[in-house]
């Protein structure tokens, strides 16, 4: 038994759930997330209790892979409910002399020590803002927010000697001493 998969997902008021076949849509206001379920997993929407329950067939209880899909599906649906109600955010810090970030339309322009400006396209559904050296990424889809933040960070990872680069605001960069001159 999946300890995570058998827990029901409580859905707050105002969130609309639509289950049609293997597709599920969770929406609230202008935020809408879609997910296609795996064939091993079934989802039941209880309108009376305002809960979603994820189940698998009794014959598949001994199949390790199916139990993994059970817990995964429940976690993804929970993330979708939280995404449309509260949203997810990730903050990055651009550290370095002359390093900067600017939002220009649907691209994020990074000046991080290279000869050219690095242009990172902003995916649909994400809200990216820049406050001096801080880049804030917000959106309803947890995977998109994390993926975009990781792509931006990968353009210039923080280096351990001077601490320059793009890092998460909650990330701690272990600093190295460097070479010692003279003895």
Structural summary, described in words:
With 183 residues, the protein is an alpha+beta fold. The protein has two domains: 9-85, Ribosomal protein L6 (Outer Surface Protein A, domain 3); 88-168, Ribosomal protein L6 (Outer Surface Protein A, domain 3, Alpha-Beta Complex), CATH 3.90.930. Helix content is 19%, strand content 38%. The protein has helices at 64-85, 142-154; strands at 9-10, 16-20, 23-28, 31-36, 41-46, 51-56, 88-95, 100-104, 107-111, 118-121, 126-131, 134-139, 165-168. The longest helix has 22 residues, at 64-85.
Keywords for this structure?
183 residues; alpha+beta; 3-stranded antiparallel β-sheet; 13 strands; Outer Surface Protein A, domain 3; elongated
Sum this structure up briefly.
With 183 residues, the protein is an alpha+beta fold. It contains two helices and 13 strands.
State the name of the first-level CATH class of the largest domain. Answer: Alpha Beta
Query: Overall mean pLDDT score?
Result: 92
What is the CATH homology-level superfamily of the largest domain?
Ribosomal protein L6
Strand content: 35-45%
- Helix/strand class: alpha+beta
Count of helices?
2
Based on CA atoms alone, the radius of gyration comes out at 22 Å
Distance between the termini: 64 Å
Describe the strand arrangement of the main beta sheet, using strand numbers: 11-12-7-13
Assign an overall shape: elongated
Topology:
Blueprint: E1 9-10, E2 16-20, E3 23-28, E4 31-36, E5 41-46, E6 51-56, H1 64-85, E7 88-95, E8 100-104, E9 107-111, E10 118-121, E11 126-131, E12 134-139, H2 142-154, E13 165-168
Antiparallel strand pairs: 1-6, 2-3, 3-4, 5-6, 7-12, 7-13, 8-9, 9-10, 11-12
